Amino acid sequence: MSTGWRTNSYKDGPKILIKPGVGIVYDLGSAQKVSAATLSLRYGSDHTTVELYATDSLSSSTPLASMKRLGTATTSSTSAKVSVDKPVKTRYVLVWLTALPYSGADETNYSDAGYKQAITNVKFTG
After folding, report:
1. Is the pTM of this model over 0.90?
2. Are 78 and 40 within 8 A, CB to CB?
3. Among residues 11, 113, 124, 126, which is most buried (max CB within 10 A)?
4. Cα separation of 57 and 27, whole Å?
5. Whole-angstrom distance, CA of residue 83 vs CA of residue 61
6. What local confidence, expressed as pLDDT, does residue 107 receive?
7. Where are the domains of the chain?
């Protein structure tokens, strides 16, 4: 993987037990209508759960409870599509992972074996 974002490797899973989830906030540059997100993932297998949230900032200290949940999807492949029931206009979107597949050690990404995931591409649609 030359670009992207990855989680740590966790010993327990697929549901992340040590915390509620892990994620990354995407800045769309300006408020955009969001009706879906398509993610390319590095690791397929049982299973990845993705949730989308609209948020007001890039801050990692913003509580999840103050964000607007847009949708969720679970996949066992290397792609996931999260559809939004009611499209919203937002500048920042949190991609939140709550379950991760198991994968062996990956020398090219310097990651240990465990429950983990990497996002290699995200496309937001309005």
Report:
1. yes
2. yes
3. 124
4. 9
5. 26
6. 75
7. 14-103
